[in-house]
Design brief:
The complex is a heterodimer. Chain A is mainly alpha-helical. In chain A, strands 1-2 form a two-stranded antiparallel sheet. The longest helix of chain A has 38 residues. Chain B is of the alpha+beta class. The N and C termini of chain B lie far apart (72 Å). The chains are: A mainly alpha, B alpha+beta. Chains A and B meet through strand 1 and helix 11 of A and helix 5, helix 13, helix 19 and helix 20 of B.
Chain lengths: 301, 494
């Protein structure tokens, strides 16, 4: 009898310890999520100091946001800038992670370099953007150097060129995140059984072959994780382009991301439109995550 | 052992940070109390400081006006005066010129035993308005010390606040109407609501001028005398011809795209919005046409308003001949741009300081200006009224502001008197610029303003930048403009 009782009370403590998480999750995540879905069906904004609505309007917010406001363009911008930043990021990170974990190389000062490559991530994105905005301004140091060494005759106006601005956003995202990715990939690589590498070496495999046929396949779970989190982070891209272009998404709206567009709706406290956009973002995020997950795990089965 | 120690440390840090987080909120009101009471005790004798100068002042004014102003603080119960604004301009005016204001050194101030709390939010991208809206809507439920007592507005969106129900206290209710008789009529029109109540007051008038570099004028036109130079810029055709002459000599007539915008946008024949539809006035399109033409011909530096590159044009290494701007622009903005040593003395020899002069330019216009409003629900109405009186109605204080800060004050007889007496401006090379302001201020009309002006201006300049840069054609730029404003103002169509 007593034995049974103590058993039950231990189980109870398990739930008690889980409770804070579920409470916090419900209050700060679940309820707002459900509310967002609810509000997306209403016309509800502020004109001057008077609030209009909420009036139920069905799906008209969703129709408007795609047809009137060209949502696809902003989605395209976001995706392009994510790709520009992610490709160099994953290549450099894989290379660095492979070097850092390669026992044959015996790199010195590993801790120092790991810290250094992670540092850009600690700078606030807005401060980083302000810095880049000043450095790459028409009369900024980069243009002065380029003109000084004779590469350019007139300043290159980075923030008036689509490629220039998108490239800078990509570059900043790359610089900020490659350290983080390197550390994640290193964790994955160090989890691989060293005897596999030794066996491959004994069989005469070259470093490239080891990387391709041992490291990469065994790294897949971590790669899936990196791609998914980076993609979700990419969809939420906001602070870097927002500060870099002073909220305009200039030139010609080519650097306006989905979240910057969402932010514009909050000028008039347009909860209906902003809600509709958030719901669309939720669905896109969910679909992309599922796609990437299945694409990368299918071969294992 | 090491690990254990580390984990204990980490968890202590976590718990500690939690406690700190909670503590802040819980304790915040507590220290606020002694803070406000402490100066009260200290300054008990200084209590009359507020009233004393007011009395002095009214003695001066006695012979001029029938009823003299006395600050009536008897109904005031508040211990904190909250003032909402978007830059340091008004703060420095109050600090320097309001009798009895003491600077606490930590960004706040004190008037008698009332603590003055400045809430400064920059106006870019509507941040100031958004913050003000949120706070005003919660005004009724806010604690007495958190209520807004005064807030500042610009002409671009003045109507939004003066026409809103239950937001402003009218000047009549504050007993200021009689004292505002000498103010320029347009400054009262801006803040007059639909029922004819005047809901704000301003200390400055903002007729705009064209401000140019004297040494460059001498080099290119052979003279730096404002009257002579004006003949080269008296209409837009002459302006363009002179721009060409300047360009041939390596100078830009304006710094960037948006410089002349206000000259065109204040001379429009329709407001931005008519019956919920966006209307782009022909004169605004004239600005687009002219700016595109100037850009293609190299008459500007392709910069945007307020950017660093835009401002650099006025420095000794800059190549900009002139800027458009009113009195506050000259002193509060341009003078700073011209100094090579920003912390150095504002005097001839520091960069291009003192090498400037102002002319009427091709067209009269006005730009900006700050109005002070009293918020309903304020528990310091007597003090608010006194600040308004001292800074916007009291000729002695206004004279001080003109002399010390080169502002153009909102008092017609005083300004005309000072202009006639030949007050000169050292930054403008000893020019009597008040004369030109006096001439310009009479033509200001604001009948075509709307509550959307700031948003429209920002978005229109932003969208047109792509067109001037050559990234898009005019139709795309206009389409981008419509999309951007309709996102911000869902009630509008085109």
């Amino acid at each position: 009898m007593t034995k049974k009782k103590s058993c039950v009370s231990y189980t109870k403590w398990g739930y008690v310890f889980l409770l804070p998480f579920f409470l916090v999750y419900t209050i700060f995540n679940l309820i707002p999520l459900v509310q967002t879905f609810y509000y997306s069906f209403f016309e509800n904004y502020r004109s001057g100091l008077t609030t209009i609505g909420p009036n139920f309007v069905g799906f008209s917010n969703f129709v408007n946001i795609v047809s009137k406001f060209n949502l696809l363009k902003f989605a395209g911008n976001t995706f392009i800038m994510w790709v520009i930043g992610f490709i160099p990021q994953i290549i450099i990170s894989l290379l660095l992670a492979a070097w850092f974990t390669d026992l044959n190389l015996k790199l010195k000062g590993q801790r120092f370099f790991k810290t250094v490559i992670y540092l850009p991530n600690l700078i606030m994105a807005s401060a980083f953007s302000m810095l880049f905005f000043t450095i790459f301004a028409d009369g900024g140091p980069v243009n002065e150097i380029l003109m000084g060494v004779g590469i350019l005759d007139t300043p290159f106006r980075f923030f008036s060129s689509v490629g220039g601005t998108r490239g800078l956003v990509g570059l900043m995202n790359f610089l900020m995140w490659f350290g983080n990715t390197t550390i994640l990939l290193m964790a994955g690589m160090m989890g691989i059984d060293p005897s596999l590498f030794e066996a491959a070496e004994v069989d005469g495999a070259k470093p490239m072959q080891i990387f391709r046929f041992i490291t990469m396949p065994l790294l897949k779970p971590i790669l899936v994780y990196v791609v998914i989190t980076s993609l979700i982070g990419g969809i939420q891209m906001f602070d870097v382009p927002q500060i870099l272009t002073a909220g305009d998404g200039s030139p010609n709206g080519s650097t306006k991301t989905l979240i910057m567009f969402l932010n514009e709706h909050l000028f008039s406290k347009n909860y209906g439109m902003a809600g509709a956009l958030s719901v669309i973002l939720f669905i896109i995020t969910a679909i992309l995550s599922i796609c990437v997950y299945y694409a990368l795990t299918k071969q294992n089965d | 052992m090491k690990k254990k120690l580390l984990s204990v440390l980490l968890s202590t840090a976590m718990v500690a940070s939690l406690l700190v987080g909670c503590g802040d909120k819980a304790e915040e009101p507590a220290p606020a109390e002694p803070e406000t009471e402490a100066p009260a005790e200290d300054e008990e004798p200084a209590d009359d400081e507020v009233e004393a100068p007011a009395e002095d002042e009214s003695a001066d004014a006695e012979d001029e006006s029938a009823s003299e102003w006395t600050a009536d603080l008897s109904a005031d119960t508040g211990s904190v005066l909250n003032i909402y604004c978007w830059n340091e301009e008004f703060k420095s005016r109050v600090t320097d010129h309001y009798p009895g204001y003491t600077d606490n050194g930590d960004g706040t101030g004190a008037i008698g035993d009332v603590k003055v709390n400045w809430v400064i939010v920059p106006s870019d991208d509507m941040a100031y308005q958004n913050n003000l809206d949120e706070t005003l809507l919660k005004q009724a439920d806010a604690a007495a010390d958190d209520k807004i007592d005064m807030f500042l507005i610009e002409a671009d969106y003045a109507l939004k606040y003066v026409n809103a129900e239950g937001v402003c206290i009218s000047m009549a209710d504050l007993g200021l109407t009689d004292y505002m008789a000498d103010q320029y009529q347009y400054t009262k029109d801006v803040v007059t609501d639909a029922n004819g109540n005047v809901n704000g007051t301003s200390w400055q008038g903002c007729p705009g001028l064209y401000i140019y570099r004297r040494s460059v004028a001498k080099e290119v036109f052979g003279t730096d005398d404002p009257t002579e130079v004006q003949t080269h810029f008296s209409d837009w055709d002459k302006f363009a011809a002179s721009a060409q002459e300047l360009a041939d000599a390596g100078w830009k007539v304006v710094s960037g795209y948006d410089d002349a915008y206000r000259v065109f946008s204040q001379n429009v024949s329709t407001p931005w919005v008519v019956d919920g539809k966006i209307v782009i006035d022909d004169n605004i399109m004239n600005w687009v046409e002219q700016t595109k033409d100037f850009t293609d011909k190299g008459f500007n530096n392709k910069t945007s308003l307020w950017s660093d590159d835009w401002a650099k044009g006025a420095s000794s290494s800059g190549d900009v001949f002139g800027y458009f701007g009113p009195a506050w622009f000259i002193d509060f903005t341009l003078a700073g741009y011209t100094m090579d040593d920003a912390d150095g003395e504002a005097a001839v020899g520091n960069g291009t300081w003192g090498d400037w002069a102002a002319i009427e330019g091709p067209q009269g216009y006005f730009w900006g200006g700050t109005w002070v409003c009293a918020a309903q629900g304020s528990d310091n109405q007597g003090l608010v009224a006194d600040i308004m009186y001292q800074l916007t109605c009291n000729p002695d204080v206004m004279k001080e502001i003109v002399t010390a800060d080169n502002d153009f004050c909102n008092n017609q007889p005083l300004m005309e008197e000072m202009a006639a007496s030949g007050v000169t401006n050292a930054f403008l090379g000893g020019e009597n610029v008040l004369e030109k302001f006096c001439a310009g201020v009479t033509s200001i009309s604001l009948e075509n303003s709307s509550i959307y002006d700031q948003g429209m201006t920002e978005q229109f300049q932003g969208a047109m930048k792509d067109y001037f840069d050559g990234n898009v054609d005019l139709d795309t730029a206009l389409e981008n403009f419509y999309t951007n404003v309709e996102t911000r103002y869902p009630e509008l169509t085109h």
